[in-house]
């Protein structure tokens, strides 16, 4: 039961940090990183009304991906906060780099909403940053959980 609670908290925390960081990147104009609406509009096939479905997809994925992240962080054997954050950030960087490749190689050109069909290096970098934020959130919850949540 404790692991399930940790998974839920880690997934929600990580997804919230990732969503916030990508929202900031998008609103700052650094990249077209409106990931929540990009996910949602893949389901709805339009931009309007895509935020809530995108948020539901992202939170669900955040909870699902928290499982392997937590297992790897625990298996690392590290217990200091900085080490657990570093492992989470490293996992996020790897995850973000692979998602950036998948996004640019397959998803973008077939996206049903035109504004999301172009994904250059700036969008890829935004995904890496977002996934690092996710990993930091999961690492934080792993550290709290290791202390007897």
Main sheet properties: none
Category by helix and strand content? mainly alpha
Order of helices and strands: HHHHH
Low-pLDDT segments: none
Total domains: 1
How large is the share of residues in beta strands?
under 5%
Query: Quick check: average pLDDT?
Result: 92
Radius of gyration: 15 Å
Put simply, the count of helices is: 5
Give the N-terminus to C-terminus distance in angstroms: 11 Å
Write structural notes for this entry.
With 149 residues, the chain is mainly alpha-helical. It has one domain (2-146). It is 79% helix and 0% strand. It has helices at 2-28, 35-44, 51-75, 81-110, 121-146. Helix 4 (81-110) packs antiparallel against helix 5. It starts with a helix and ends with a helix.
In brief:
The protein has helices spanning 2-28, 35-44, 51-75, 81-110, 121-146. By secondary structure, the protein is mainly alpha-helical.
